[in-house]
Amino acid sequence: MRRRSRKPATAPRKLPVQARSARLVADILEAAVRVLEREGAQRFTTIRVAETAGVSVGSLYQYFPNKQSILYRLQVEEWDKTGATIDAILADAALPPAERLRTMIRAFFHSECEEAPLRNALDAATPDYHAAPESRAKRERSRAILAKFLAAAAPSASSSQRAHGAELVFITMTSVGKQLSERRPSHAEVNRTADAIAGMLTWYLAQLGA
Amino acid sequence: MRRRSRKPATAPRKLPVQARSARLVADILEAAVRVLEREGAQRFTTIRVAETAGVSVGSLYQYFPNKQSILYRLQVEEWDKTGATIDAILADAALPPAERLRTMIRAFFHSECEEAPLRNALDAATPDYHAAPESRAKRERSRAILAKFLAAAAPSASSSQRAHGAELVFITMTSVGKQLSERRPSHAEVNRTADAIAGMLTWYLAQLGA
DNA sequence: CTACGATACGAATAATTATTCGCGTTTGGT
DNA sequence: ACCAAACGCGAATAATTATTCGTATCGTAG
Questions:
Q1: How would you label B98-127 residue by residue, b for 16+ Cβ within 10 Å and e otherwise?
Q2: CA of A75 to C1' of D20 (A)
Q3: A37-43, long-range: CB < 8 A, 24+ apart
Q4: Maximum distance among all Cα pairs of chain A, rounded to whole angstroms
Q5: Which helix (H) or strand (E) holds B15?
Q6: CA distances from residue A45 to A66, A133, A171, A202, B105 in whole angstroms, order as listed
Q7: How many degrees, rounded to 5, is the angle at CA B174 between CA A115 and CA B90?
Q8: Is the distance from CB of A71 to CB of A120 less than 8 angstroms?
Q9: CA–CA distance, B14 with B64 (Å, rounded to integer)
Q10: How many Å separate Cα B137 from the centre of its chain?
Q11: Is A4's CB less than 7 Å from nucleic acid strand C?
């Protein structure tokens, strides 16, 4: 447990060029997920990851500069996946805005619940991830997408009202989603909560332009 | 870092009987808070706590069976404090329900933000705290208080609707409060968010009995 | 005052950790 | 077939950790 330097690198130290090393990297990432789910964040260990992947620690360290970088890769992949889903739903002009919001929140909550063990372990293992610039950029993009959506959902609101609205939708959605996922709720319970939250947010947005 | 036994004890191993040992325990708890705030959860260490308190590790272990038990004591104290505040506000019959809810959420959010570094570190250091029976009991009591409040706030709702309402108020309040506290928001921003959340919840509760 | 339990101490122990490095093996182009 | 580079290995290293225990000091009851 050597002290981390001020800026823990996340970039791979060496890129896989042959097929076997590409497979090795893939195996390591897959094993990392399994270790997080089986053992939890506390017991997420380079040795355990290497063992689970069926490779040696030395090999692991040829493509990842440190333990953090493995978690970082997983975190980014995870975020990109759910981000794309959300964007697609919000942009679907065939549905009325309220319906889009409801569908999006349902999808988001279900996604959060499905990946709960992984995400919780990631959060516990990388508590400073939110300060990372890449994470900040991702959230900015999300807020931009939400703001565009609000132009349709609350057309008569001022732009500063819309900014506040986007902020509120974002914080409510993400925080309730996270907390909800920690309770292993039933499918029905997720839908009920999602619909309640979506209803409240819809009311709030309608309010904005009044 | 010996493997934790299946049930990590939280009860003190020995009760302080003389004045100096009572002071020692108090010093340790105070130092624990300082260490969490200064160093974070990752670097929260029995040795560091003892050093900061100006006592030796051995003394620490005479009154705390393990590291967890220190964090557990802090967690319980923290919870009791904000719980009492909330209960008092919700029970104040002099104000209309909507106003009570708004005041309570403002107070809760401000409290969350003030103690953010401590609470975040506690959460990171004791990720399994929510499974503890004592924590479960505390949440039950909160929900009971909320349910009683809902009898005044949504008198025409059925009892199962009220249960859902209490659940929604609880999860929304706690989750948004936690996430909000992680951004070091300004006083005004906290009030704005609290009022928006309180407004949405009030609308939702009014809805319930319609 | 005195003796005994309570208290305090902190070096020692045992476990676990992230990360490195030297050496053997495989690959792919020639 | 040959060889340089890429790859894979895992014991060794150095750091840090929680917790114990033998010993020394203190407080107080009698």
A1: bebbbbbbbbbbbbbbebbebbbbbbbbbb
A2: 40
A3: A37/A117, A37/A118, A37/A121, A40/A121, A40/A124, A40/B127, A41/A120, A41/A121, A41/A122, A41/A123, A41/A124, A41/A125, A41/B127, A42/A124, A42/B127
A4: 63
A5: none
A6: 11, 25, 32, 44, 40
A7: 155
A8: no
A9: 8
A10: 13
A11: yes
Cα separation values, A46 from A63, A158, B151, Å = 12, 51, 53
**Rounded Cα gap, residues A147 and B183, in angstroms:** 20
Q: Which two tokens stand for residue B122?
A: 């506690």
Token readout for A123 is 């959060």
Q: Shortest CB distance from B175 goes to which of A127, A179, A200?
A: A179
B180 at interface of A, judged by CB pairs closer than 8 A: yes
Residues A188-196: what's their mean pLDDT? 98
Token readout for B70 is 């220190």
Q: Which of A75, A71, A79, A78 is nearest to A45 (CA)?
A: A71
Angle at B84 between CA B83 and CA B87, to 5 degrees: 85
**Residue B59 CA to D22 C1' — how many Å?**
14
pLDDT values of chain B reduced to their tens digit, one per residue, 210 residues: 433 334 557 777 778 999 999 999 999 999 999 999 999 888 999 999 999 999 999 999 999 999 999 999 998 888 889 999 999 999 999 999 999 999 999 999 999 999 888 888 788 777 777 777 778 888 888 888 998 999 989 999 999 999 999 999 999 999 999 999 989 999 999 999 999 999 999 999 999 877
Of A175, A197, A199, which is closest to B178 when you measure between CB atoms?
Answer: A175
Residues from chain B contacting residue A196 (CB–CB below 8 Å): 164, 168, 204
Phi then psi for residue A18, to 5 deg, are -95, 165
Q: Give the span between the Cα atoms of B48 and B100, in whole angstroms.
A: 43
CA angle at B127 for the pair A33 and A36, rounded to the nearest 5°: 10
pLDDT digits (tens, 9 = 90+) for A138-187: 888 888 899 899 998 899 999 999 999 999 999 999 999 999 998 999 99
Nearest CA in chain B to A171: B176
B149, two tokens? 């409040």
